[in-house]
Write a structure and sequence with these properties.
Order of helices and strands: EHEEEEHEEEEEHEHEEEEHEEE
Number of strands: 18
CATH class: Alpha Beta
Radius of gyration: 18 Å
Pfam family, one: Glyoxalase
Structural class: alpha+beta
Keywords: Metal-binding
Organism: Oceanobacillus longus
CATH architecture: Roll
Helix content: 10-25%
Number of domains: 1
Protein name: VOC family protein
Largest sheet: 8 strands, mixed
CATH topology: 2,3-Dihydroxybiphenyl 1,2-Dioxygenase, domain 1
Number of helices: 5
InterPro entries: Glyas_Bleomycin-R_OHBP_Dase, Glyas_Fos-R_dOase_dom, Glyoxalase_1_CS, VOC_core
Distance between the termini: 20 Å
Shape: globular
Strand order of the largest sheet: 2-3-4-1-15-18-17-16
Length: 283
């Protein structure tokens, strides 16, 4: 089942800020496996299929080092098409001497890294949705040890890492927020997402179409965490892809009805969640 298609609302693109564009481009090409679609002196659009950008990098003017304990990006998550792709990138990272974390979430198997500026990256593969366990509208997720020995059995003889596969998509985004009550209202009543998992009183996982999550939201940087400086590395914005114009118009109406701000910029609608995370509403 495709949870990143027209029938659903999903994250299609993430734009992050970096301190040094050239240093970051080297990392995202050689270590993560992106290709450059477009580039100028201070920004670049990255692609896996040579046609569509799912990640953009931007170097702000007078950039500073990443600030801690603020709202914004926890990580963006790159979804690979096959389990063998995850096994290949594990071998690649080991060959490059890159340290990374890992976890088995029951619904998925994941690797975790940080780019040169400390921006969080997840690279993962979904397990078959038929194997996910649901109870009263919530999907079971956990943080177990990833079985690398079993993962290695998915390697295809003669196939090795050659960058991110063309079918790679932006699987989800996970955000630091300053609180959860108004945040849940914004994403649920305003944007139309369903809460599919509550992690104690500190995190929410939300989705459309019974995906395990298109967006994660947490207060792990502290309730009341401030927004980061505009010239600090981190999240610039993320783009939500809605099914059609009618769906977007409905979302805009729902956002306005709960008191959220919505602005139109060059035929694009922009909103911000209660923690200041910038969201582009696209079709």
């Amino acid at each position: 089942m495709n949870f990143h298609s027209k029938a659903h609302t999903f994250v299609g693109h993430v734009r992050i800020k970096v301190e040094n564009i050239e240093k970051s481009l080297e990392y995202y090409q050689e270590i993560i496996g992106f290709q450059i679609l477009e580039q100028n002196q201070t920004s670049a659009k990255l692609t896996t299929d040579g046609k569509t950008s799912i990640l953009s990098l931007e170097q702000p003017e007078n950039g500073i080092s990443k600030q801690g304990k603020s709202t914004g990006l926890y990580h963006f998550a790159i979804l690979l098409p096959q389990r063998s792709d995850l096994a290949n990138i594990v071998n690649h990272l080991n060959e490059k001497g890159i340290r990374f974390g890992s976890s088995d979430h029951l619904v998925s198997e994941a690797l975790y890294l940080k780019d040169p500026d400390g921006n969080g990256i997840e690279i993962y593969i979904d397990r078959e949705p038929s194997s996910w366990s649901w109870n009263n509208g919530e999907v079971a997720m956990t943080v177990d040890q990833l079985d690398f020995e079993d993962l290695s059995t998915s390697l295809i003889p003669g196939q090795s890492w050659s960058g991110l596969p063309a079918e790679t998509v932006m699987g989800h985004i996970h955000l630091h927020v300053s609180e959860l009550e108004k945040t849940e209202q914004f994403y649920r009543e305003g944007l139309g997402f369903d809460v599919v998992n509550r992690y104690g009183g500190q995190a929410l996982f939300i989705s459309t179409g019974n995906y395990h999550h298109h967006i994660g939201l947490n207060t792990w940087n502290g309730v009341g965490a401030p927004t980061p400086p505009a010239n600090s590395p981190g999240l610039e914005s993320f783009t939500l892809i809605l099914p059609n114009v009618e769906a977007r118009n409905q979302v805009v109406g729902h956002l306005i009805s709960i008191g959220a701000s919505v602005a139109e910029e060059n035929d694009t609608f922009i909103t911000h969640d209660p923690s200041g995370n910038r969201i582009v509403l696209a079709i």
